[in-house]
Q: What sequence folds into this?
């Protein structure tokens, strides 16, 4: 079922969903199941599965020689999606990236989605490769998420890159895109970033899921500005509870977001990471209660491979 259909069927009730990360190469799926199992009591209608882009690794060859090779550290997104659908009976949302994929490779991935009965995808430009100062499109690939959205919708309408005639069967994907309550790291202004979001929606995106944030006012302002621009699709907030003192510097540096001063002070005064984890749970519960009162369609949690804190949060909300 499409995400938009899940939202419509909920009739205003806020749903629970989670994003998971594929295990590294050579690691079994059982650890992933162990983190998802405790969350199934909250009946997530869908689970997102991230996709990693390629990166370089350096292999010692001896005699001072080093060989550089390209690899993907966390492959298997579609296989995991199929496994989760089979095990839990939930819809899954594979992330589809511009970076690291040619248009042909993207098309093959989307065809595999159709074979597996996957109705939903999240279309993302992706980050720059490690070691690159800016995003560089893959040769033969898409450079912008809006172009990727258009390609996904073409596939859903039976229009392929190399076929002269469209197929008769149409399988419209439900396409999600990313939104940034504190603007994208590369955007010169919020107005500029919102215009890029509108372009993605105009290209056929069906819903928006936001980057993590910790100040609800920024989310509310983001939604109001998006609606004023004519963006009327559902906007889903992304939630990430803080868990370690390292998040004080890691999250702002990685995602270019601000942490509210009250949260910063509480984390600084915490005696250890166990105390920080409890602070993160309490902050997220309060944040999510306000978001539910606001009427968000879904609370979407970034699990980052762990679920015990998310379970504690969800038990207070659902």
A:
């Amino acid at each position: 079922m499409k995400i938009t259909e899940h939202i419509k069927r909920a009739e205003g009730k806020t749903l629970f969903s989670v994003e998971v990360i594929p295990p590294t190469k050579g690691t079994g799926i059982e650890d992933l199941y162990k983190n998802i199992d405790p969350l199934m009591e909250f009946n997530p209608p869908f689970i997102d599965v991230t996709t990693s882009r390629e990166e370089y690794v350096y292999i010692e060859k001896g005699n001072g020689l080093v060989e550089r090779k390209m690899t993907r550290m966390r492959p298997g997104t579609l296989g995991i999606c199929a496994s989760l659908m089979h095990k839990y009976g939930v819809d899954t949302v594979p992330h589809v990236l511009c970076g690291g994929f040619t248009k042909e490779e993207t098309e093959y991935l989307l065809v595999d989605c159709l074979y597996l009965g996957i109705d939903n995808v999240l279309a993302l430009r992706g980050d720059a490769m490690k070691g690159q100062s800016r995003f560089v499109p893959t040769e033969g690939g898409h450079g912008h998420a809006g172009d990727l959205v258009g390609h996904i919708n073409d596939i859903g309408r039976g229009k392929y890159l190399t076929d002269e005639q469209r197929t008769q069967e149409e399988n419209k994907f439900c396409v999600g895109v990313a939104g940034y309550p504190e603007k994208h790291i590369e955007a010169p202004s919020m107005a500029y970033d919102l215009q890029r979001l509108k372009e993605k929606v105009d290209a056929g995106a069906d819903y928006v899921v936001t980057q993590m944030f910790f100040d609800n006012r920024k989310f509310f302002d983001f939604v109001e500005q998006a609606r004023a621009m004519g963006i009327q699709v559902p906007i889903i907030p992304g939630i990430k509870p803080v868990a370690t003192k390292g998040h004080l510097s890691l999250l702002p540096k990685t995602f270019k977001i601000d942490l509210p001063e009250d949260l910063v002070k509480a984390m600084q005064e915490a005696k250890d990471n166990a105390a920080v984890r409890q602070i993160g749970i309490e902050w997220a519960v309060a944040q999510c209660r306000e978001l539910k009162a606001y009427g968000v369609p879904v609370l979407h949690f970034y699990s980052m491979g762990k679920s015990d804190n998310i379970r504690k949060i969800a038990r207070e909300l659902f």
About this structure: Residues 63 and 69 are 18 Å apart (CA to CA). The chain is about 40% helix and 20% strand. The longest helix spans residues 273-294.
